[in-house]
Amino acid sequence: MLINISILQHWASMMYDILEELRKSLDDYRMLDDPYYLQYSPYVNDSMYGTTTIEFPLDDNTDPIPPAKLPAKKLSFNSLFSRTRETTKLVVKSAKWALYDKKRLESTICNFRRETEKLTGLLPLAQSAQVSRIDNKIDALTATTNDRDAQILGLVPHAKLMEFNEQNEDDYTDENEMKQCTVKTTSDDNELSAGTIELKHEGVNTAEQESVLIELKYYPPSEENYNAAPNNPDADTKINVRRLAGLLSISSSGSELRTLPFKFYVHEPDQERYAFVFGYPLHALQSQPTSLHDLIKSSTQNQRFQLAIRFQVAEMIAKSIGVFHADGWVHKSVCSRSVVFFKQRSKESLMLRFPYLVDFGYSRPEEGKTYARYQQTTNSDALYLHPDRPRMTFTKLHDIYALGVVLLEIATWKTAKDHFDSAAKGLDLDVTTIDKEEVREKFLSIAKKSIPYYMGTSYMEAVISCLDDTYRGHTASSTFLETFQPEIIEKLSAKQLLSC
């Protein structure tokens, strides 16, 4: 087996940079509790105020830094004056803590968390890149799923997704289907909506109710479902449903995949649909989530993204798509409506730094029949459709194109439909019938003119690479991930602005 050394060095270099930042954070954290720091820091020791240099004796027989002299407790018979003086000192030290050290500690912890998140997001990509080069892939994946260290590092869900991708259609089961359950939703649309479920338990008269999130998947159009009996889907649809349920069940435990906690699905033959049921994310208010599309359209002051958050959300979405592709799956319905945000339970404000991907399509890469809702839609979602579609089988390239449109929306803070309407002003044009190559050219033109002003040149280059078929013929390669990481994900980082 041949391994590209430069690729290994690329992943190792990125991990080294993150680990170095973690080391610096730990040094800062340690220093806050270091006795020498407590003695010599002007933040906590008033005798060091105004000190520009600190000199230590260099005699080998003596400790270069004497032991810290920490304040001792005063005895109870101290005079009122002494107690007052000590109380005043404590108040001053508390003020110093509040003004200086507390902020430093909070900043240190924040940096540590941020670098840890980067590392946990990078490890699955590196893992997938290496597994793709192993001859006996199944044994390697099985070993990973049983490895304790891999579990701690968050690599097990990705190994399971790759394992699941290797299964035959006959291996898919209905283990994720809930039979004795009634679903109540506030909407009959495909989009994710708040609702409730009633679980019926044997021997219990009353049903257990729970607030959940529900996503409806309707049977494919009758002309494509000609083998199905009334109120009964065909075999392909059943396989697709079981496969998607398995995908969502596994991905729920991978934080960087940005999927909701999947519970089960319910078959509703009378409505000719399946209801996919999800729980709410941790700390989220149990209410209707808000899509990225709706946030951009509303653009109220309290919901507008700050620049730093725009970069973070764009990078997280791209990384999630990249990890799914690395694990052998596609999303199939990427658009600004398939990215949602939740209100925080304690503050009831949107958690803008935590986007979630929803509305996954049925099929996995390069496979079989596709029942994408784009083929049935008459709304703006058609603008995310690659010019190849629906004539050609869905591939990763089509996901990447749709990702490019979403990244364009984030950069310009304007929906794809609004961009289309501006270009078609005064013309009698239909979103669903217009030449999609013309739409692509319009998006590319907007990206080249507008994005450098809003988000910088590197961000623009990432969007253009997504939109202009740069990666046609390469997305199925096992080495494509090494291209996607530096040319898309890394260019969406706010750090790229520093190199402009």
Features:
single chain, alpha+beta, 4 domains, three-stranded antiparallel beta sheet, 44% helix, globular
Which spans have pLDDT < 50 for at least 5 consecutive residues?
Answer: 53-68, 371-378
- The SS-based structural class is alpha+beta
Q: Could you state the order of secondary-structure elements as H and E? A: HHHHHHEEEHEEEHHEEHHHHH
CATH fold description of the largest domain: Transferase(Phosphotransferase), domain 1
Give the total of domains: 4
Assign the CATH superfamily of the largest domain.
Answer: Transferase(Phosphotransferase) domain 1
CATH C-level of the largest domain: Mainly Alpha
Trace the largest sheet across and list its strands: 1-2-3-5-4
Mean pLDDT: 78
Bulk shape: globular
How large is the share of residues in beta strands? 5-15%
Major β-sheet profile: 5 strands, antiparallel
SS summary, helix count? 14
Radius of gyration: 28 Å
Distance between the termini: 40 Å
**Total number of strands:** 8
Under the CATH scheme, which architecture of the largest domain would be assigned? Orthogonal Bundle
Helix content: 40-55%
Structure description:
The chain has 500 residues and is α+β, with helices and mostly antiparallel strands. It has four domains: 109 residues; 35 residues, no CATH class; 105 residues; 212 residues, Transferase(Phosphotransferase), domain 1, CATH 1.10.510.10. It is built from 14 helices and eight strands. A five-stranded antiparallel sheet has the order 1-2-3-5-4, covered by helices on one side. A three-stranded antiparallel sheet has the order 6-7-8. Strand 1 and strand 2 form a beta hairpin. About 5% of the residues have low confidence.
